Amino acid sequence: MWGAWSSRTAVVGLALAVFVVCCLLPSGYLLAVSLGSATGLSALLIDARQRQLLSTTALLGVGTALVATIIGAPLGAALARVTMPAKALLRLALAAPVLFPPYIVALAWTYVCSNWIYTPGAAILVLGLVFYPLSMLATEVAMRRVDGRLEEAALLVAPRARVLRRITLPLVGPAVLAGGLVIFVLAISEFGVPGLLRVRVYTTEVFTAFAALYDFGRAIHLALPLLLLCLTVAAIAAWLVGDRLVTTSRPVGVRPVAFDDWRRAATTSVVAVLTIALVLPIAILVREALGARGLGAVLAGSREAIANSLWLAAVGATVVVIVGACLGYTRARAGSIGGRLADILLVVVFAVPSTIVGIGLIGLWNRPGAAGTVYGTDAMLVLGYLARFVPLTALALAANVRYVPVSQEEAAAVGGAGWLRTMWRIVLPQVRLGLAAAWMVALIMAFGELGVSILVAPPGEATLPIRVYTLIANTPPSHVAALALLQAAIVFLPLALLAAAMRVRERR
């Protein structure tokens, strides 16, 4: 449609350059430094200390994946097959915990479960309650794809439970397994919860080696096994899902069979999960914060951190969505083979642990010359947001762009319109709701980002997550709970706006 030297080439090329610099180079730098030295290669030989770290890390990942799948998969099936009122709002409420900063959830439970909370099992439960929406959403999408003709034919000769076990579950199994693998990667990549609950895993050891012992070489060598494990598992998960990451259309056939006779059990499960995963942590924080004295002074002392967080999160979300929209458009218009490779690459990059991203950014930018002018400024935080959230945003927006027919762009090109004008007048208006949702999600995730921020933040400056995390050890619990509750309120405000917009759209 457009020539090789059109505006599309320039814009997409610039977005790809940002993706390479911000998302690929940090991990590539660590791999090159580690594997390029004898000590780096020796890091692959697991000693007794690393075996303990590896076993605890693997336990955390496997346990979290199992707990999240046990909770999320039945909820996804219920959302797909059981008739419930205001299902869109229920889906949004059930998905909210995955946007909640995990360490805030862990902090809330430390106020009521101090006897057993500092164990790997507690970390597994907390992370399972945070990440179950990923399994829920993956299961729901897979359940909606099942051709209802297969289930209707089976129901003629078999009871409903047997049809679900023998027909439906095998068809959705790969998606559920892929969701579990992604949760495994996110769990072993998490820094805040293990650090707060004193569970020694690779992410906490990497942070300790760098931030506490100032041993950059050891931090890199400890990061290597974790990085390779995350990349391998994420690649397998992306391969299992295939092109379905950005394709959401339902196959030709009749509607999938509904399981409305399970409505009461589904409703009870939804209420129970929302209570445990969302209502109770908020209620615990509220109870603890009500006992704070001098709350005004606490909030006043954190005013600069709050302002920094909001400003940097807004800037970061805007840049993330701009870059993600360009990459998402490119992915949506790519061929089947190139698109699948792009999906695998985006999932793998998103799976890189936040502490590894932070150390990689420091290694790249903490040097003399032009790069050194960036290091030590707030731009490092924005670079961290780009590295963490561009891949996810690109995948989400690619799914939105797939709904825009290519024929509309072809017609515009025949009429003489350039690519920028076509995007501005045809493509973007049709995906504006997806862009708004992507911006809100990126804002929420950037506002709650801890692993990268705590490493690359300029000296003397802090975001709200950094301030909350650093105040936990030497500040009254009520003050910390008040700041955590404030962070939770700011996170839920965009979700409330999104829920209101969805409600208005449903009434039209």
Describe this structure in words.
Helices cover 77% and strands 0% of the residues. The protein has helices spanning 7-35, 38-42, 48-81, 87-95, 102-110, 120-145, 148-155, 160-189, 192-196, 202-212, 216-241, 263-289, 295-301, 303-332, 336-350, 354-365, 370-374, 379-401, 406-414, 419-430, 432-448, 453-456, 464-471, 477-507. It is globular. The protein has 508 residues and is an all-alpha fold. It has a single domain, classed as Orthogonal Bundle (MetI-like fold), CATH 1.10.3720.10.
Topology of this structure?
Elements: H1 7-35, H2 38-42, H3 48-81, H4 87-95, H5 102-110, H6 120-145, H7 148-155, H8 160-189, H9 192-196, H10 202-212, H11 216-241, H12 263-289, H13 295-301, H14 303-332, H15 336-350, H16 354-365, H17 370-374, H18 379-401, H19 406-414, H20 419-430, H21 432-448, H22 453-456, H23 464-471, H24 477-507
CATH topology annotation: MetI-like fold
The arrangement of helices and strands along the chain is HHHHHHHHHHHHHHHHHHHHHHHH
Class from helix and strand fractions: mainly alpha
Instruction: Identify the CATH architecture.
Output: Orthogonal Bundle
Quick one: biggest sheet?
Answer: none
Beta-strand content: under 5%
Number of domains: 1
| Fourth-tier CATH superfamily name | MetI-like
N→C terminal distance: 37 Å
Key features of this structure:
mainly alpha, 24 helices
Short overview:
This protein has 508 residues and is mainly alpha-helical.
